[in-house]
Amino acid sequence: MERRRALVLGGSSEARALATRIAADPRLDGVISLAGRTSAPIAHDLPTRVGGFGGVEGLARYLVEERISHVVDATHPFAARISANARAACAVANLPLLVLTRPPWISAQGDRWIEVDDNAAAVSALGAAPRRVFLAIGRQGVADFRVAPQHDYLLRVIEPPQAADLPHSCEVIFGRGPFALEDEIALMRDRRVEIVVTKNSGGALAYAKIEAARALGLDVVMVARPAGADAATTHSIDAAMAFLAS
């Protein structure tokens, strides 16, 4: 019997876990695709391609040429463009698509969240008075905060940002999660953080900063996930494997 061939659009811990399961299943073949935004991505257990497809047309062509039978969108919850392209390309190629994503964080007792729709609203939520701001959003979108130069920013990234994107006063630190709760508390104390800005990416790997802000009584500006079109969605690796075997 011919093995089903899956394309996993990666960039998340869920994608890595799914790749490991696919590689161990004799019924399945697959490839994982990464956007290429980090120079040293974490290794996966499937053959890996890096870079864009050339929009919807290029992705649809790839699906046909590579004889893909199933597509799993396991990108970061904020990777809106590739997710939209995946939906459109699968419609063109008449292929099944499943979105595998982590559930968003939900405010708990003691949290002081200011929930906003996008970075522009996050900037407004910081207010006019100067504050020490922990930007825990990665390097994508940091330029949006240049319009509020009165604040003193702390930006944590994996890859170096473009200097032209940085706000006027911005300390850049490097790190890749997961981070321990005690380390996050120490960081925020040592850097005199007054407010945290983060995306609601969900999952356990980055949750320690939310717990740290709660423990320290800090406000958290929480940027909501972009609205997605209707697509079959799961939070379960087992459900994704069942989809691929169907």
From TrEMBL:
Its EC number is 1.3.1.106. Pathway: Cofactor biosynthesis; adenosylcobalamin biosynthesis. PROSITE patterns: COBK_CBIJ. GO terms for molecular function: precorrin-6A reductase activity. NCBIfam families: precor6x_red (TIGR00715), PRK08057.1-2 (NF005968). PANTHER family: COBALT-PRECORRIN-6A REDUCTASE (PTHR36925). This is Cobalt-precorrin-6A reductase.
